Amino acid sequence: MTRLMFMSVLLLGAILFSLTIGRYPLQIGDVASFFLAMAGLKPMAPESYQLLYNVIVEIRLPRILGAALVGAALASSGAAFQAVFRNPLVSPGILGVLGGASFGAALGILLFGNWALVQLSAFVMGLVAVSVGLMIANMFGKASMILLVLGGMISAALFTSALSIVKYTADPYEELPAIVYWLMGSLGGVDMTQIRWAMIPIIGGLVALSLFGRALDALSMGDDEARALGVPAQPVRYGVIGTATLVSALSVSLAGMIGWVGLVVPHVVRLALGPGNARLLPTSAFCGAIFLIGADCLSRSIMRSEIPIGILTELLGIPAFIIVLRRARSGWT
Amino acid sequence: MMTPALPVECLEALAVHFRRGARVILDDITISLKSGEIVALLGANGAGKSTLFRILLGFLKPERGEVRLGGEPLADFSRRALAQRIAYVPQAHVAPFPYKVHDVVLLGRLAETGIFRAPQAADHRAVDEVLERLAITHLATRPYTEISGGERQLTLIARALAQGANILILDEPMTGLDYGYQIRLLKHLVDLAGSGHSILFSTHNPEHAVRVATRIVVLRDGTIMADGPPTQIITPSLIRALYGVAVSTLTNVEGQMVIVPSMERALDTRLETTRA
Predict the structure, then answer these.
(1) pLDDT band at residue A297, thresholds of 50, 70 and 90?
(2) A interface mutation test: which of B69, B106, B115 has the most A CBs within 10 A?
(3) Helices (H) and strands (E) in chain B, counts
(4) pLDDT of amino acid B8
(5) A65-332: which CATH number, 1.20.58.220, 1.20.1440.230, 3.90.950.20, 1.10.3470.10?
(6) Touching check for B61 and chain A: CB below 8 Å?
(7) Do A276 and B103 touch (CB under 8 A)?
(8) How many Å apart are CA A197 and CA A16, to the nearest integer?
């Protein structure tokens, strides 16, 4: 509990700090006095209040909250998938959710061009891809672990080729760049309405995943052992897969493809806290949120024009992963 | 000391039949495990030992026949209720994540707490007790992935004891362990039976069965070939039929049965069985 309090304070600090980053320079003090004024605790001149409201609440806050939600969702679902598949190298895309969502987004860009429909299409196709993967895995009787992985691979391949078809038929001046840009991942398009829509299911999903922590510990020992320990293995597995898929599909529909967060963050947290999922899952969520807020700050500030955040998380994630590999390899002989 | 919390119950499979595709794995098997018994299950690879275990644990449903626990059909128990009564000790394996030994054993408490409740101080105490009982307290903070095979097997037994279950089912617990650990493990089995546990274990070593079992069940090609007290069951002809080697059985000064393989005739008999 104290750890979660500490992480919450850290997350709040990261959010406050990141509100100061951007083209219009702000100090932490400005942000603090704005929020005090907003709460009616401190007077502020109406012109400067309006300016700060515009910068902080309308421009910066949605993308920062988006970064926090997406980072938490990816890190936590990554940790959950790693436990379900008994493999620390698994990332949230294992069952095809990312491939499906990419296809869905590209299709949405081609057919509708309306941003909300693009997101809806990405979300739905992400879920469809995972369902297809699970169906393939269960085609010949109850799916084993390896069949689930293969089913996910087949489904991801299917949707990736469908994505190629969409790209091929897309208009190369308008639609194709939009698709490519979406695939790089960006928080620029996030607004407050989307946050309101996505926040409750994402946070609910993260809490649910964390509640399954101890059951996941048992499940990571193997199905028979989990059953012998009193854990209903199949319901827990599919419950966790369903929740993690929902949460990651939502995050992808908000911000496109943001790689490595779901793989690296749980890994680092596991090295620090040990592998117990009851602690790993909530802590990964917080760390993922803070990591993505940090990456977003960088993406907004190192160059005059914004760098797509998916590229940044890859650039940051790869060295982090190499460092983790160096420490973790002893267990993999 | 962790003593079984629930009344002692008898686990029995009645005329259990199981097929995989067209292949019959278990053919009308009837077997029972009564309180305080140590039953050793002997049988060559592929005789159906693991399948029988999985049926007794409720992981597989038999095609025909029934498994009963304390007279009630196994299917009537929830997973958790079963876990409070029957504990399973798999062969020592390598876990994918480096859980500490204490945390692995703590998983045994899931049967008691349920999956959503965090372990309490009493659960941690229960873990400490079983670790002490198996004399592996010094391993508590070591990662399960870094200890030896024998230590891992003891950890898994500790986890089974932490469940508080009365019935222990162990899958080839001695396999892959050094001589010292094999003997220590046998001693633990005897002690556990003495404190009220019923134990069913499979083994490839008839000597181990003879040394600790109160009853031996021999499984061959999915049928029960013999079931009874060790001294009556283990004969040179049975060993020869099971493993294709010649042995003689002796009684040592303490009155225990000793199995002595005959090296001269060992290869001959193997030839005979392959010809047959």
Answers:
(1) very high
(2) B115
(3) 11, 12
(4) 58
(5) 1.10.3470.10
(6) no
(7) yes
(8) 23
Same domain, B19 and B137: yes
| Least confident range of A178-182, A286-290, B5-9 | B5-9
Q: Say what the ipTM of the complex is.
A: 0.87
Q: Would you state the pLDDT for residue B276?
A: 38
Predicted confidence (pLDDT) at residue A251 exceeds the cutoff of 60: yes
Which candidate, A249, A244, A247, A251, places its Cα nearest to that of A216?
A244
Domain ranges, ordered by start, for chain A: 65-332
Token output for B239: 């060993």
Q: What is the pTM of this model?
A: 0.88
Cβ–Cβ gap A236/B88 under 8 Å: no
CA distance linking residue B224 with residue B165, whole number of Å? 27
Where are the extended beta strands (E) located within B72-175?
A: 72-73, 86-89, 167-170
Instruction: Say yes or no: B88 and B53 in one domain.
Output: yes
Q: Where are the alpha helices (DSSP H) in A85-173?
A: 97-111, 115-137, 145-169
Q: How does the average pLDDT of chain B come out, rounded?
A: 89
Q: How many CB atoms lie within 10 A of CB B267?
A: 11
Q: Which residues of B touch A84 (CB under 8 A)?
A: none
Return d(Cα B78, Cα B73) in angstroms, integer.
11
pLDDT digits (tens, 9 = 90+) for B234-266: 999 999 888 888 888 888 888 888 898 887 766
Report pLDDT digits (tens) over B78-135. 999 999 999 999 988 888 888 999 999 999 999 999 889 889 999 999 999 999 999 9
Q: Is the domain of B217 the same as that of B271?
A: no
Contact flag A276-B99 (C-beta cutoff 8 Å): yes
Residue B268 in any domain: the answer is: yes
Do B81 and B210 lie in one domain? The reply is: yes
In DSSP terms, B203 is beta-bridged to B42
- Does A332 score more than 80 pLDDT? no
Cα B217 to Cα B11: distance, rounded to the nearest angstrom: 15
Q: Between β-strands B223-228 and B215-220, what pairing exists: parallel, antiparallel or unpaired? A: antiparallel
Asked if B167 and B44 sit in the same domain, the reply is yes
- A313-332 CB burial, b ≥16 within 10 A, e <16: bbebbeebbeebeeebeeee
pLDDT in tens, A141-188: 777 888 999 999 999 999 999 999 999 999 899 889 989 988 888 888
The structure tokens listed for A107 are 């299709």
Structure tokens at A13: 């600090």
pLDDT above 90 as % of chain A: 58
Q: Please tell me which residue, A305 or B192, carries the higher pLDDT value.
A: B192
What are the structure tokens assigned to A98, written together? Answer: 């990312």
DSSP secondary structure string, B23-56? EEEEEEEEEEE-TT-EEEEE--TTSSHHHHHHHH
**Least CB–CB distance from A278: residue in B111, B118, B146:** B118
Q: Which residue, among B131, B181, B123, B125, has the nearest Cα to B153 in the 3D structure?
A: B181
Please count the structural domains in chain B: 2
Claim to verify: residue B147 and residue B274 sit in the same structural domain:
no
The parent domain of residue B79 ranges over: 11-234
Any domain includes B5? no
Predicted local distance difference test score (pLDDT) of residue B267: 59
Inform me whether the pLDDT recorded for B61 exceeds 50: yes
* B50 to chain A: closest CA residue: A224
d(CA B247, CA A313): 67
